[in-house]
DNA sequence: ATGGCGCGTATTACGCGA
């Protein structure tokens, strides 16, 4: 069982790449963020033709999330019931005995702004919701664009980013609070090379210079973490023509 | 210090992402 997450920065633009990547990497579950499509424009037929079911929650211009799955999905929930939100940033489904939560956590723009405050409140509510979900779903996974680089080793230039949005201590504390619920960062369950990132700015040739951040994550409940045998960032799509600024993260689970 | 790039919307210019 392979589960993955990818912020595609417009599914309208990136659909051919998503279909290509699924051919190359036929994961069981793929969580998408920043689809930027209203539900009436979602490319259901193309995704089903590739052998995947799909559920989605979108809006005009911004945000939007989806789960693609080769296995049946049930009990679909859109957004956090504890946090009424006009922004479409969460979709969850039960797949093969796992509760899969796909999240596009707010960016926060800059420390001290209204958007930053919204991000921290949003994360408070996410924590409380997942604490409750963990009680009813032993096998629980939170995949998505967290917009948080958890540690300095997840940042190409920690000094330059110190204290700024994506790296500030209150954001990192929110990540640790999720870990305190028992969730494990799948990527850090394994020995990894240094300077592995999941996002690079479009500007300044940041990808070629590996000036990136690791902000896309897969958190696993204890029952899934013990069954996780690998977690990798797949840089390949970032090298393609007209790429998303993010690249997929994939976890392998050995489920009975 | 600022903006660099890419996308969406719609105004060829701006908001936003990270």
From TrEMBL:
UniProt record, GO biological process: DNA repair
Gene3D superfamilies in the record: Endonuclease/exonuclease/phosphatase
Required co-factors: Mg(2+); Mn(2+)
Pfam families recorded: Exo_endo_phos (PF03372)
First and last residue of the signal peptide: none
Site (Interaction with DNA substrate): 246
One Gene Ontology term of the molecular function aspect: double-stranded DNA 3'-5' DNA exonuclease activity
Cofactor stoichiometry and binding remark: Probably binds two magnesium or manganese ions per subunit.
Residues annotated as binding Mg(2+): 7, 34, 145, 147, 245-246
Active site: 104, 145 (proton donor/acceptor), 246 (proton acceptor)
The Endonuclease/exonuclease/phosphatase domain, residue ranges: 4-246
Site (Important for catalytic activity): 216
Keywords tagged on the record: Hydrolase, Magnesium, Manganese, Metal-binding
Residues carrying the site annotation Transition state stabilizer: 147
Family under the similarity heading: Belongs to the DNA repair enzymes AP/ExoA family.
UniProt protein name: Exodeoxyribonuclease-3
Organism: Noviherbaspirillum humi
Taxonomic placement: Bacteria, Pseudomonadati, Pseudomonadota, Betaproteobacteria, Burkholderiales
């Amino acid at each position: 069982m392979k589960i993955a997450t990818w912020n595609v920065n417009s599914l309208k633009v990136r659909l051919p790449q998503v279909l290509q990547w699924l051919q190359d990497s036929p994961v069981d579950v793929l969580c998408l963020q920043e689809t930027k499509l209203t539900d009436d424009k979602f490319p259901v037929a193309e995704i089903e033709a590739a052998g995947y079911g799909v559920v989605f929650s979108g809006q005009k211009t911004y945000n939007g999330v989806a789960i693609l799955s080769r296995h049946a999905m049930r009990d679909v929930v859109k957004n956090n019931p504890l946090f009424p939100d006009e922004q479409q940033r969460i979709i969850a489904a039960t797949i093969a005995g796992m509760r899969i939560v796909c999240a596009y956590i707010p960016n926060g723009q800059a420390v001290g702004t209204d958007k930053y405050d919204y991000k921290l409140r949003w994360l408070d509510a996410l924590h409380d919701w997942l604490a409750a979900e963990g009680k009813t779903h032993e096998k629980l996974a939170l995949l998505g664009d967290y917009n948080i680089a958890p540690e300095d080793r997840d940042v190409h230039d920690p000094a330059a980013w110190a204290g700024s949005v994506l790296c500030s201590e209150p954001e990192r504390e929110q990540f640790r609070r999720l870990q305190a619920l028992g969730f494990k960062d799948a990527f850090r369950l394994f020995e990894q090379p240094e300077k592995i990132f999941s996002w690079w700015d479009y500007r300044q040739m940041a990808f070629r210079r590996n000036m990136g951040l690791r902000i896309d994550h897969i958190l696993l409940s204890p029952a899934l973490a013990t069954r996780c045998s690998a977690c990798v960032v797949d840089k390949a799509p970032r090298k393609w023509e007209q790429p998303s600024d993010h690249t997929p993260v994939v976890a392998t689970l050995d489920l009975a």
